[in-house]
Amino acid sequence: MLGPDVPWYLVVAGILFGIGAMGVMLRRSPLIVLLSLEIMLNAANLAFVGFARLYGDLDGQIFALAVMAVAASEVVVGLGLIVAMARRKLALDVDSMTELRG
Amino acid sequence: MSVAGAWVCLLAPLAGLLAITGAGTRITRRQAGWIATVSVFVAFAGAVYTLIELIAQDASERERLSTAYTWFEAGRFEAGLQILVDPLAVTMMLVVTGVGGLIVWYSMGYMAGADEERRFFAYMALFVFSMLLLVQAGNLLLLLVGWGLVGLASYLLIGFDHHRPAAIAAAKKAFVMNAVGDATMALGLFLVIAKVGTLDFGPVFRAAEEGALSDTVVTLVALGLLGGAVAKSAQIPLQTWLPDAMEGPTPVSALIHAATMVTAGVYLICRTAPVFEAAPDVQHLAAGLGAVTLLAAGAIALVQWDIKRVIAYSTMSQIGYMFLGAGVGAYGFAMFHLVTHAFFKALLFLAAGVVIHHLAGEQDIRRMGGLRHYLPFTWLVFLVGSLALVGIPPLAGFWSKDAVLASALATGGVLGWSLYLAGLAGTFLTGLYTFRLFFRVFDGEPSPLVLEHAAGHGDHAHGAEDAAGHELHGHGEGPLSMLIPVGALAALTLIGGLLNVPGLWDTFEHWIAETSEPLVEATVGQDYLTSLLAVLLGAAGLLLARRAFLAGKDLVPGTSPLHDALARKLYFDDLYDALFSRPAQALAVRLRDRVETPVVQGSLEEIGTRTQEAAGEVARAQTGLLRTYAVAITGSVVVLAVVFIVVR
Amino acid sequence: MLATLLIVVPLAAALVIWVLPLPRETTAGIAVLAALAEVGLWVGGVFDFSLSPLGIEWVDFGSDQQLFGTSRAWFEELGVSYAVGFYGFQFWLTGLTVVVGACAIGYAMWVGRDRPRAYYGLVLFLVGSLVGVFASQDLLLFYVFFEAMLIPLYVLIGVWGGPQRVKATVTFVIYTMAGSLLMLASVVAFGIGQGTFSLATSGTSSNDWIFLGFVAAFAVKAPLFPFHGWLRDAYTQAPPEVSALLSGVVSKAAVFGLIWVVLPHFPGPVEDFRGLLLVLAAATLVYGSLLAFRQPDIRGVVAYSSMAQMGLITLGIFATNDLGLDGAVLQSVNHGLVSAAMFLLAGMVEERCGTGQLSALGGMAKGRPLLATLVLTTGMIVLAVPGSATFTGEFSILAGVFDHGWGYAAVGAAGIVIAAMYGLRLISALLHEGRGSSVPEDSPDLRAGELGLVVPLVAILLVLSAWPAAVSGNSFPGDAPAETIAGVGG
Amino acid sequence: MGNVVVWIVWLAAAGACLGSGVAVVTLTNPFYSALSLIGNLASLAVLYLLASAEFVAAAQVLVYAGAVMVMFLFVIAYLGGRADAPWAGGPRWLQVAAVVASVALLVEVIVALSFGADSRLGTEREVADSFGSPAEIGRLFLTDHLLAFEITSIVLLVAAVGGVVLGMKTSDEEARD
Amino acid sequence: MTVVGASIPTPDVDWLALSPTVALLAASALCLLGAVIVPQESRRLFSATVAFTGFVAAVVLAVDVFRETPDGVSLIADSMSRDRLAALAQILLAGVGGLAVLVAWGDRRRSHVGEYYALLTAAGAGMVFFVGSANLMTLVLGLEWFSIALYILCALDTDRERSLEAGLKYLVVGSFGSAILLFGAAMTYGATGELGFSAIRDAEGADDPVFVIGLAMIVAGLAFKASAAPFHMWTPDVYEGAPTAVTAFMAAATKAAALVVTLRVLVTAFPEQSEVWTVAVAVLAVASLAIGNLAALVQRDVKRMLAYSSVSQAGFMLIAIAADSSSGGKALLYYLVPYAAASLGAFAIVAARERELERPVTVDAMAGFGWERPLHGAAMWVFMLAFAGFPLTGGFLGKFYVFAAAYEAGWWWLVVVGVLATAISLYYYLGIVRAMYMRPSQVVGSTLAVAGGSPPYDPALGAAVAASVAVVVGSFVFVQPLVDLAADAVAHLPF
After folding, report:
1. CB contact under 8 A, C322 and B77
2. Residue C317's pLDDT band (boundaries 50, 70, 90)?
C-alpha cells in the first residue's frame, strides 16, 4: 500500500475521536458541541475507511457513507433545535440548561 | 359402681355459673344467689351419693377413672377429660361442696344489697366448679387446669370490689404468685411428659414407685409440684399474697382462703404421694416449710390488727401443720386436719363476717370490743371456733392437730424432733394469737364504734369493704341465711373430730390410706403424750393472752425490733419487691427505652435516613449539566473497556 | 374445589364491590354476605356431606389425602402450578381467617368506615389472599398470596388508620417486604434447585442460605425479636379490625410457612439452626411480654403480647415434635381468635373514650357488665389461664420444647408469669378502680351489634377450651405430626 | 519515491486533520470553528483518497464540507452575536475529568491498536483499482446494502421534517407568548 | 428496483419481513401528507387514526410474521433477520406504539399535529426495523432512525423550555452515545472484517484487544439506549422534559427495542466472549439497580421518578441478559411485556393528571388522585405494583423469572442484589400510592379550578390505561402462553 499502514489511519481516527469527545465535554456553545460531534462521527468514518482498506472490503466505505447521512441528519435536527432556542431567546449555553436535574 | 354422682357434682356448679351468666339481668340478684346455692348443694348431693357408692365397694375397688372424652391430644400424647373417684377425692368433694354450699348460702345474707351481686354468685359457682375439677381431676393436666382455675376464681373474688385499688392490687398479687406456682408445677409436668410420656396418674405413679425415673428427675418433678403446692397454700416462701387476699368479701375468705383452695397444696401432696415418696428430700422440705410457716405465721398473727388478717395468718399457720403432716407421710392426718380446719376456720371467718357485717365493714380490732353483749350467738360460735383452733378437746382441731404432731414424733430423728418441737411451739402461739383476737373483739368494754352500731344509726362510711353496698347501721347477727350456715359449721366443729379418735377408731385415716398409704404410724403413747403437751401449751397461750388483755398490754411491744419485723411480715414483701417486682419493671422500662426505641425502631430510622442520604448524593450527581453526562459516559466506557480487557 | 372456592369468593366479591357503584349499605351488605358465605363454606367443609347416611360426618383429617384440592398447570416452564388444598392445620388456619375476616367486616360495617367500596373490597381481598396463603400447595403460589396480602394492608392501614398511619404502613410494608423478598430469592433458589415448586413433591435442601432466606421472611412476619420493628406502629395505628386481622391472621402466614415450607424441606438446616431459632423465639416471648407490661395503651399491650405469643408458637414449631407442632397449630388458632377479639374490644373502648391510653381509662366495669365480662374473659384467655384453650396450647408447646432443653420451657414458664402481669394490668386499667379521665360517664355498654362480633370469637375460644383436641388432634395427617412433616420432604 | 510523496501528503493531511480538529474545539468564535471543521473534513477527504475510498472522499467534500457546513454557517450567521458562547468554564473538576477521560479512551484505543498492529491489522489486502469506485459502491448500495441505503434516506427525511418542525414558529408558541 | 441495470442482480426482498416497518412508514407518510392537505380542525383525528391504524396493522403483520417464521432466516446479504424474536418484539413495540397514540390523542397541541403522529409512527417504524437488524450497519442506522425521530419528538413542544432542553440534551448525549457505538462498530469491524452478526461470530480474531474494545463500546452504546446506569444520565432529564405521551412511548418502546437488540447482538455476534460481557452486563445491572433506585427515592416529579425507575427496571432486565441462557432470553422477553404495559400506563396516568392540572405532575400533585379519579388511581396502583414486582401483576412473575434464570446461570449474588433493590424501590413506588390515597387532595377547589375544572373524560387514554392494566394482570395469569411465545422467539438464538 502506498503511504502509511492502516494502523496509522486508526491512530489518527482515535486521536480525532478523542478531540471530538473533548470538545463535547469542554465546550458550552451548543453549536461547537455539534461540531465536535461531527468530528467524532468522522473519526469513526476514518476508522471504517481504514478498515475497509485493510480488508479490501467495501462494507466499511458503505458504512462511512451511511454515517455521513446520519451525521447530516443529526446536524439538521441540532441546528433546528438551536434555532428554536434562539427564537425563544434562550441562552445558547449548554451550562445554562439545568432546569432539568436532580 | 356409678360415677354419675361425681359427674353431677362436678358439673352442677358449672351449670349454675352458665345459668347466672346467661340469664344476666333477667334474674334478680336473689335468684342468682339461689341458683348458686342450689347448684352447690346439688353438687354436695352428688358427692354424698358418690360417697355412698364408694363405701358400698370393696376397699380395694374404691377407685374409678371415668373419661368423658379426649380433651387434649397432640400426636400420641393424650389427656382425657376424666375424673378419678376414690376416697381422697370424695373427701375433698364433700368438703368443697359441703362447706362451700354453706358459705354460698351465707353469702346471700352477707352480700345482700351489694353491687353486682349476680357477678359474685357466678364467681362463687365458678370457684366451686374449679375446685371440684381440681380435686376430681383424673390426670395431672386436668389437675393443673383446676389448679389454675381456682386461682382465677380467687383473683376474681378478691378483686370483687373492683373500684377499690387495694382489692385489685391484692387480686393481682394473688394471681401472679399463683401463676408462679402454676409455672413450676407445669415445669414438673413437662418433665413428666418427657420421661413418662403421659400425665395419667397411674402410669406416672407406677413409674415413680418402680424407680423407672432417676432420682434427679423425681426430685425435680416433686419440686415442681411442691412449688405449686406452696404457692397455692401460701406457705413460705410464696405466702405473701394470702394476707392481702383478705381484701375480698368475707365469705370468699372463708371459702377460698381458709376452707378449700389454700389447702389444695396439701391435697396435691397427698394425691401425688408416690412422687414425693420417691423424692424423700422434697417431701421433707415440704414438712420443713410447713414447720417454718406455722411458726412465722403464728408470730406475725400476734401483731395484726385486722380481724381477717389475724385469721388469715392463722390459716397459713394451720396449713403449715398440714404440710408438716403430709411431709412426714401422715397423709390421713394431714387430710384430717384439712377437713376439721375447713370446718372451724370457715366458722371463724363467717363469724368474723357477722362481726364485720354488724359493724358495717369495720375490720380493725382496735376499734372493737365488748361485742359479746351485742352478738351473743356469734360470740359463742367464735369461741367454739377459737378453741378448736387452739386444739382444746374435744373440738375438731384437737384431734387432727395432735395426730399430725404425733406423726412427726413418730418419724423421729433430727427431722422428726425438730418438726415436733416446732409444731408444739406453734400450738402455744396459736393459743396466744387466737385469744388475743377473741378477747379484743368480744371482751372488755364496748368501744365507741360498737356502741354507735348498737344504737343502730351509724351513718358514715369506714372505707373498708362493702362500704358501697351497705347502709351503715348495725345488722345484729344478720339474717337466718347467715346464721344457719354458721350454726351448721359450729356443729361440725364440735363433732368433726370424732371421725378419727386415736386408739379407738381410725376410720378417717384408713379411708384416706386407701388412696395414700401413710409412711408413719404413731403409737397410742405418742398420741397421748402429744395431746397432753399440745393442750397444755395451747391453754398456756390462752392464759397468757388473757393476762395481757387484762393488763392492756400488747403481746409484742410495739417498740421492739421484733414487732417491727413481724409487722413488716418478716420483710418478705419488701424482699420480693426488691428482688423481682422492681427489677422486672425496671428491665421492662429499660428494654423499652434502651432497646426498643433506639435500637429496633432506631435502626429502622437510621437505615431510612442513610438510604435517603445516599439517594440524595446520587441525585446530586445528576447535575443537569450536559457536559457531565458526556464525561460520565466517556468515563464509563473507559472503565468498561478496562473491565473487558481484564476479564478477557 | 372448596379451596378454590374459598379463595375466589372474597376476591370476586371484592371485584363486584369495586366495580359496581352501589350505595354504602348495599356494599356493606355484599361484603358481609360474602364473609358469611366464606364461613358457611368452611363449616360445610368441616362436615363431609357425602359420607354418611345421615348426611353429616367429620372430615377425616387424619387421612393422607389432601382435602378439597385443585391443581392446574400455571407456569409449567418452571414447574409452578396452581395447586391448592388443605391438610388439617391449613384448614384450621383457613377457618381462623374466615371467622376473623367476617368479624372484621362486621366491625367495619358497625363503625361505618368511610369510602365503603374501597374499604370492603380491600378487606375481602385481604381475606381471599390469606385463604390463598393457607391453602397453597405450591411454593410460588404461596409466595404470591403471601405478598398479595400486603397490597390491601398497605392501604388499609395507610388510609383508615390512626394519626401515625402513614409512617406505620410504610414501615410495615417495606420491612415485611424486605424479609419476603429475601424469601423470593430463596424460593427461586429452592424451586429451581428442585425442578418443581410443589410443596408436596419437592425434596429437601441442605442449603443454609436458602433456609435463612425463608426464615428471615417468616421472622419478620411473625415477628420474632429483633425483627419486630414494624409491629407497634402497625398494630396501634391500623383500624382495630385490621389490627385484628393483622395480628390474628396475617402473622399466621409465618406459622404456615415455617411448618409447611421450612420444616419439611430443610431438615438439615433446621437441625443446625434449631438452637439459634429457639433462643430467638424464647427471647421474643420474654421481650414481647416485658414490653407489653410497659405499654401505655391497650393496643400496644395487645401488640406486644401478640409478639410474645408468636415467639411461643415459634418455639413449638422448632421443637419439631408432636407436642410442639400440634400445640403450635392450636395456639395459632387460639391466638388468632383471642387477639382479634382483643383488638375489636380495644376498638370499641377507643370509640367510646376517644383514646386507648391506659392512664386515661379505668372503671369501665361499673355499669357495663357485658363489656366487663367480655374484656375479662378475653383477657383471661390472653394470659392463658389454665383451662383456657391458650393455656392448652402453651402447655403443649412448652412440653414439646422441653425435649430440647429445660431452659426453653423455663423461659416459657417465666413468660407465662409475665403474661399474667401484663394481662391483669390491662384488664384492671380498663375495667377497674376509679373512672378514667377519658371515660364518659354515660358511655354505653356493648350493644347488640358489637356483641355479635366479639361473642362468636369468644364462644369459639370457650369451645376450644373445652375441647382443644378438636384442633390439636386433627392438625396433621397420620397420628404423629413430626413424622408426617419429615415424610413430606423425604 | 511515490511512497515518499504519499507519506508527505498523508502526514500533511493527518496533521491538518488533527490541527483543524483541535481548532474546532478550541476556537472561541463558532464561525471560525465551523470553518476549521471544513478544513478538517477536507483533510479527511484526502486521507480517504489515500485509503482507496474515492467515492467516500468525494461525498465527504460534496455532502459534508459543502451542504452540511453551509447550513452550519448559515445558522451561525442567522444567530449573529448570540452564537458567541463562553468558551468553557464550569466546574474545574469537570474540565479535568473531561480531559482525563478522553485521554484515557485514546490511550486504550491506541494500546489496543498497537497490540493488533503487528498481526492482523498490519497486513492489508491487495485491492483492485475499482475498489471504492462509485460503481462498486453503487452496486453494493443496490444489492447487499439496499436496506442501509433506504434507511439512510428515511433518516434524512425524518431529520428534514424535524428541521422544519423545530425551525418553524408554532401557534403554541404564539399562544404562549 | 427493476429500473436498476441488468448488470446488478436484484436482491430478493422479503416484503413480509419488512411489512410491519413498511406499514408504519406508510402511516407516517400519510400523516405527513395529512399535515399538509387535511384541514386544521380534522387533522388530529385524521393523523391519530392513521397512526393508530398503522400500529395496529404493524401488530397484525408482525403476528403474521411470527406465525409464518418457525425458523429464523436472514435477508438481503444478512443485513436483516426475519425471525420470531424480531416478530415478537415488533408485536410488543407496535402495540406500545398504538397505545401511545391513544395517550397522545388527548394532547391539546395546536401545531404540528400531523408531524407529531408522523414522527411517532416513524420512530415506531425505526424500532420495528431496529429489532430485526442483523448487521452492525442496520443496527446503527435503525438506532439513528428512531433516535432522531425521538429527538425531534422530545423537543416538539418548542413553546416549553423544558421540552427544548430535553430535546437538546437528548440530541447531544444521544449523538455522543451513537458516536461511541459507531466507533465500537468500527473497531469490531476492524478486528473481524465483518459487519454481520453471525459473520462476526464466525470470524477470527476474537481475542484481539481491538475487538474487545469494540465490544465494550457497542455494549455501552446499547446500554445507553436502554438507559442502563451509568449511561442513564440523559434519561431523567429527557423523560421529564419531553411531552408525556412521547415519554410513555420512549420509556416502554426504546428500552424494549434496545434490550432485545442487546440480547441479539451479544448472543449471536459475541458468544465467544460471553464470559466477558456477562460480567460487564452484570455490573451494569447492579449499577442500574443501585443508582436508579436510590435516585428515584428523592424525586418529587413523577415523570422523573418513573425515569429513574425505568433505569432500575433496565437493571433487572440486564440480569436476564447476563444469564446468557435461553431462560434468560425468555425471562427478558416476558419481563418486557408487563414492564412495557405498566410503563406506558403509568405515563398515561401522569399525562391525564398533567392535563387536568396544567402543570408538571409532582408527587404532591398526586395527592388525593386516587379518590378523585378512582379508576385512574386504581390503574396507577396496579402499575406501581407491577414495577415493584408485587404478585397478581406480571411484574412479579417477570422478576421471578429473571431471578430464576440468573440463579440457574449461577448468578446468585445478582439475585440477592435484585432482591435488595426491589426492597428499596418499594419506598417510592408505594410512595405514589401513598400520595394518591393517603394524603388529602391539594387540588380540588384550587388549581384544578384554575385550570378550568377537570377536562372531559378522555376515552382514548382510558382505553390505553385499561389495555395496560389488562396486559399487566393478564400476563400474570397467562404466563405460560407468553413464555411459550418467548421460547419460540429465542429458540434459534445460539445459546
Report:
1. yes
2. very high
Partners of B645 on chain E (C-beta within 8 Å) are 209, 212-213
Contact call for E119 and D173, based on CB within 8 A:
no
Does the pTM surpass 0.90? The reply is: yes
Q: Which residues of B touch E168 (CB under 8 A)?
A: 626
SS3 E81: strand
Closest CA in chain E for residue C150: E390
Contacts of B116 (CB under 8 A, 6+ apart): B160, C369
Q: Do the chains contact at E177 and B633, CB–CB below 8 Å?
A: yes
Phi and psi (nearest 5°) for C229? Answer: -55, -25
Q: Provide ipTM, 2 decimals.
A: 0.91
pLDDT band at D92 (very low <50, low <70, confident <90, very high): confident
Contact D49, A61 (CB under 8 A): no
- State pLDDT tens for residues B167-211: 888 998 889 888 888 999 999 999 999 888 889 988 888 888 888
Residue A31's nearest CA partner among D44, D73, E147 is D73
- The predicted pLDDT at position B474 comes to 52
Q: Show the DSSP H helices in E298-411 as ranges.
A: 302-323, 326-357, 369-372, 374-388, 394-408
Give the residue among B520, B527, B373, B466 at the shortest CA–CA distance from B112. B466
Write out pLDDT tens, residues B586-619: 888 888 888 888 888 888 888 889 988 999 998 8
Helix axes E113-130, E255-264, angle to 10 degrees: 20
State the pLDDT at residue B465.
41
DSSP code at position E270: -
Say whether C487 sits in a helix, a strand or coil. Answer: helix
Out of D53, D79, D166, name the one closest to residue A52 (CB): D53
End-to-end CA distance of chain E: 37
Contacts of D110 (CB under 8 A, 6+ apart): A11, A14
Q: Say whether A65 and D59 touch across the interface (CB within 8 A).
A: yes
Residue-wise pLDDT tens digits, C464-480 = 999 998 888 888 887 78
Using CA coordinates, name the residue in chain D closest to A53.
D51
C-chain residues near E434 (CB < 8 A): 158, 166, 169-170
Going by pLDDT thresholds of 50, 70 and 90, the confidence category of residue C48 is low
Q: Which of B587, B647, A44, B170 is nearest to E182 (CA)?
A: A44
pLDDT at C58: 58
Positions of chain B with pLDDT lower than 50, given as ranges = 457-473
The reply to whether residue B634 touches residue D90, judged by beta carbons under 8 angstroms, is no
Portion 432-491 of B in contact with C at CB < 8 A: none
Q: Which of E179, E238, E304 sits opposite A41 (nearest CB)?
A: E179
CB–CB of A95 and B627 under 8 A?
A: yes
Ranges of residues in chain E whose predicted pLDDT is under 50: 1-5, 445-452
DSSP, collapsed to helix, strand or coil, labels residue B71 as strand
